[in-house]
Amino acid sequence: NTDLLISTYVSIYNNFTSKIDPIDKKISTIIKELNPRMLSIPGIGDISAATILSEYGDFSNFSNPNKMLAFAGLEPSVIQSGTLESKGKMVKHGSGNLRYSIMNIALIILRYSPTFYDYYLKKRSEGKCHRVALSHVCKKIIRVIYHLETKQVNFDSSLLK
Question: What is the rounded CA–CA span in Å between residue 33 and residue 129?
């Protein structure tokens, strides 16, 4: 009974994989034709770039990177009371799929880009927990992507602050 169940699950898995692989290849072909500048960031691959492009669409629709942050729901909320104003937690109003993807992409970029990893370590040394430091990396990635795509230049880690 258990063997039958396992073989059924393996069969279902193989069936899905056989349908997903050609789609991934087609996505990679299309992305290579579009040649988005974000592919020059170490750690961003074809599928990641396709995810970002499919969510944002035309980058010229955003007048600045803060609008892209808001679209992804990564900008901080503003807490106002009388004369006091402070920034709070992430609002999470934007695209949940985009935010989830950017967070996962950030984890991969940390492995391949010393510049982003150093930024992550800087935020950790400031006392920020892992998730907060990672959200700062996500914001930096989006600002970099905005610059690359609107200026049509490739990523150069020596230009990052």
Answer: 39
Torsion angle of C-alpha atoms 128, 140, 91, 60, degrees rounded to 10:
180
pTM above 0.70, yes or no: yes
The partner residues of 90 in beta bridges, in order of sequence, read 76
DSSP string, 2-40: HHHHHHHHHHHHHHHHHHHHHHHHHHHHHHHHH--GGGG
Give me the helix-helix angle, 130-151 and 114-125, nearest 10°.
Answer: 140
Residues 143/74, Cβ–Cβ less than 8 Å: no
Tens of pLDDT, residue by residue over 25-74, are 999 999 999 999 999 999 999 999 999 999 999 999 999 999 999 899 88
Give the SS3 label for residue 85. strand
